[in-house]
Structures are given as structure tokens and as C-alpha cells.
Amino acid sequence: MSARLNLVVLGKQGAGKGTQCHRLAAHYGIPHISTGDILRSAVKDNSALGREVAAVLDAGALVSDDLVIKLVEARFREADAAGGGLLDGFPRTLAQAEALERLLGEDGVKLCINLDVSTELVTERLSSRRVCQECGSIYSDTDVEAISGTCSKCGGDVIQRADDRPEAIRRRLAAYEQDTEPLITFYTSRGLLATVDGSRSPDEVTAAIQAVVAGRVLA
Ligand code: AMP
Fold first, then answer.
1. How far apart are alpha carbons 156 and 147 in whole angstroms?
2. Which of 67, 106, 170, 185 has the fewest CB atoms in 10 Å of its CB?
3. Quick one: which atom of ligand 1 is closest to the CA of 88?
């Protein structure tokens, strides 16, 4: 194995990418690079980038390839990414996948994990998802934190993301089909795709991903 462990996690919104990446990043000691998190935090900070992308995010549309590619390039230059990174939400289009190949050079993507979950199940998960605006903890609409609107971990406001509302969910899943599914073909053709059933419990999914990484990358 080369020194850098670069992994891509693909999957529809609500497939469990955030939860799994959080665990896998800690397990492998590489940063979780989520373009969605980077963009949302820019919106929250009301930075120039945030003001540029806020409306796009609210509508559940994709921001431009150029913009996210620059963000990912900058993120890989940070010291904690010297050993690689776990990419969540990037690449989203073929142009981004090709840019990532150029960016990583010889030390390319080691494996692309495709978290497979049906559209029905992700729609159900997304509509009931609530999130803490401060620390990013995820809750379900039936959890006490969602009902009270207060995060039990940090006291922040627990809200429904604007892009987790029904119309935005439909748009985001349509964008996924159109733009991202070709990436499955892209990584399959490079012999780098591993499909994992994401409908099982979070622990079972983590174990399945670790088994496939152990067998195909770290072996
Ligand atoms: P996510 O949390 O990955 O669902 O991303 C939330 C939103 O951020 C998306 O609906 C897009 O508006 C934007 N976004 C995140 N990653 C990308 C990307 N790789 N390309 C374009 N837009 C993105």
C-alpha cells in the first residue's frame, strides 16, 4: 500500500455517508472531507463563499465544478491530509472525478465505496432527519432533541435542513441520478468500485466497509 489512503464514498443523500465517514475517518486516521459540510459552514459563517452558494444549497442544486474542485484542492493541501482523505459528497460529477484523478496523481483513489440504499428508504430517512446547527449531531424527528429544538450534546439549535424538505429532496435525488450515477460506471471501469448494502444497521455497514477496505486496499 502506498502511504496515502484516499477513499471516496458514494451514495444518495441519506444513504448514511456522513455517519459512516465520521467513523471511518477516526478508524483510519484520515480527515473526513465533506464538501457539503465545508459549504454549509461557509454559509453559516456568512463568508464570501457562503454568500455565493447559499441559494444554490437551499434549492438542493449543485454548485459549480470549478468551485468545489478548488475547495477540495485546498483541503488536500492541509497538513492533516498528508496521509490521505475520506471524500464524502465529492466527486459528484464526471468532471469532478477527472479533476480528482489529476489532483491525486499517482497516489490516486484507492477504493470507491458505493453505499447502496433504495430511493424509498433515503426519502424516509431524509424527511425525518434533524441536525444540530452548532455541532452537526444528527437526530430523528421523534428524538427529544428534535421535539425540544435543543441539542443534548452542545445546547445548539436542532433544525431541519432546508434541503431536507420534500421538494429539495426530490431535486437532490434527481440530481444524484443524473450526475453521480455515471461515477459508478467510472470507478467500476477502473476496478475501484465496492458496493456495500447501506440499508443495514450503522454498525453492520461500518463492519462491511472495513472488511472490504481490508481485503482490497490494505491487504
Ligand atoms: P451534501 O451534504 O453532500 O448533501 O451537500 C449539500 C449541498 O452542497 C448539495 O446539495 C450541493 O448544493 C452542495 N454540494 C456538496 N458537494 C458538492 C459537489 N461535489 N458538487 C457540487 N455541489 C456540491
1. 13
2. 106
3. 3
